[in-house]
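Bumping my old thread because nobody answered last time. Still need a sequence for this structure:
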């Protein structure tokens, strides 16, 4: 049984701050392609954006200025990242944060993002697993029995756990609602609807034997 009908690329950025509009830049990226519930490819790199990394970010992530100074430049990394993502659906935990950095860095280089749709694993978790004490990636993953294989607040480690979380959500939807194969558009629809409407919507998808695309329009 196929878990996801189409590939989804889970992405995570480490950055110098919270806002590209205020000059914050990417310091590290991890992108993992999920096919049928498994990670089948990845692109991971530190990024030299020619900026100084704040000391508190070094303390949080362990990424130092020396590491960034020796990293490949953003003009080399971003084209490879966009090529890796292609036109697959993109996902992240708090996805609007990562997407705004992806779009900002792409725009700096005069490039366009090609991903088809954005799936937020944080929003999905709020709707599929209501009542959790926290939806921060570390605490949520612990509550669901998903372990970090290496230190948190590094792009690859966070992307790995977020990918496992997305697969966990997919398996839950399959077992709880009888949805045989999950389309990224279904996940996007769940992202965008009120939490109270989600159970009935998912029940209809299971009974209907597939995603009703007109509902997402």
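Sorry it took so long. Here it is:
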């Amino acid at each position: 049984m196929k878990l996801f009908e189409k590939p989804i690329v889970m992405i995570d950025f480490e950055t110098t701050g919270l806002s590209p509009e205020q000059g914050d830049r990417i310091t590290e990226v991890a992108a993992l392609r999920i096919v049928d519930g498994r990670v089948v490819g990845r692109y991971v790199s530190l990024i030299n954006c020619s900026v100084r990394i704040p000391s508190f970010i070094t303390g949080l992530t362990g990424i130092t200025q020396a590491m960034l100074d020796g990293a490949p430049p953003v003009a080399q990394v971003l084209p490879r990242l966009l090529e890796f993502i292609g036109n697959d659906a993109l996902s992240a935990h708090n996805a609007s944060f990562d997407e705004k950095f992806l779009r900002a860095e792409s725009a700096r280089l005069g490039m366009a993002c090609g991903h088809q749709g954005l799936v937020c694993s944080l929003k999905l978790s709020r709707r599929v697993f209501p009542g959790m004490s926290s939806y921060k990636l570390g605490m949520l993953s612990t509550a669901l029995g998903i372990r970090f294989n290496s230190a948190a607040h590094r792009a690859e480690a966070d992307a790995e756990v977020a990918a496992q979380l997305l697969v966990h959500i997919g398996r839950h939807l399959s077992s709880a609602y009888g949805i045989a194969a999950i389309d990224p558009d279904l996940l996007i629809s769940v992202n965008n609807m009120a939490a109270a409407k989600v159970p009935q919507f998912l029940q209809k998808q299971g009974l209907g034997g597939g995603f009703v695309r007109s509902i997402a329009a």
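Residues 152 and 158 are 6 Å apart (CA to CA). Let me know if any region looks off to you.
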